[in-house]
Amino acid sequence: MSINEIQDEIIDEFSLFSDWMEKYEYIIDLGKQLPLIDEKYKDEEHLIKGCQSRVWLHAGLDGDKVVFTADSDAVITKGIIALLIRVLSNQPAEEVAKSDLYFIGRIGLKEHLSPTRSNGLVSMVKQMKMYGLALHAKN
Fold first, then answer.
1. What domains can you pick out in the chain, each with its CATH number?
2. Per-residue confidence at 116, pLDDT binned at 50, 70, 90?
3. 51 an active-site residue?
C-alpha cells in the first residue's frame, strides 16, 4: 500500500469513533502493537529531541524500503509514533522524505493534543522525514 492509501485507511478508521475518548483509546491500543525498538537503540542518539515524553526512533533499510521501530515511555505518545510508523514504515526512502502526512489534520489529532505533545508530533514527523532523506541519499 502507498503512503496515501494507508493515510486514507486511518482516516476511515477514525471516522468510526464518535468522540475523542474513543479515539485516544484506539491510539493507546495501537501503541501496544508497536514494533519495539531493539534495546541497543534506546540511547541518546535515537532519542527524538523536542518531545516532552521520551521517544526513541530507529530507521533501517530493507532493500529500498525504510523500516522504522520505536518506543516511548508514554502511552499516548507510543500510539502516535505507532500511527506514524504504520504510514511511513516499509515505504521507499524518497517517499518517506517527501510525504505529506495529511491524515494528522483530517483526523483532528493535532488539535486534540496538548501544545507540548503537538510539538512532539512535529518533531517525530521531522525526524522520520530526515531519516528518509538520509537513507535515500545513502542508497
1. 3-138 (3.90.1010.10)
2. confident
3. yes
Instruction: Give DSSP secondary structure letters for the chain.
Output: --HHHHHHHHHHHHHT-SSHHHHHHHHHHHHHT--BPPGGG-SGGGBPTT-SS-EEEEEEEETTEEEEEEEESSHHHHHHHHHHHHHHTTEEHHHHHH---THHHHTTTGGGS-HHHHHHHHHHHHHHHHHHHHHHHH-
- pLDDT of 25-56, one tens digit each? 999 999 999 978 999 999 999 999 887 789 99
Catalytic residue among 6, 34, 37, 51: 51
Please name which of 72, 46, 49, 77 lies closest in space to residue 59, comparing C-alpha atoms: 46
The identity of residue 130, as a single letter, is: M
Kindly report, residue by residue over 75-88, the tens digit of the pLDDT. 999 999 999 999 99
The three cell numbers of residue 12 are 476511515
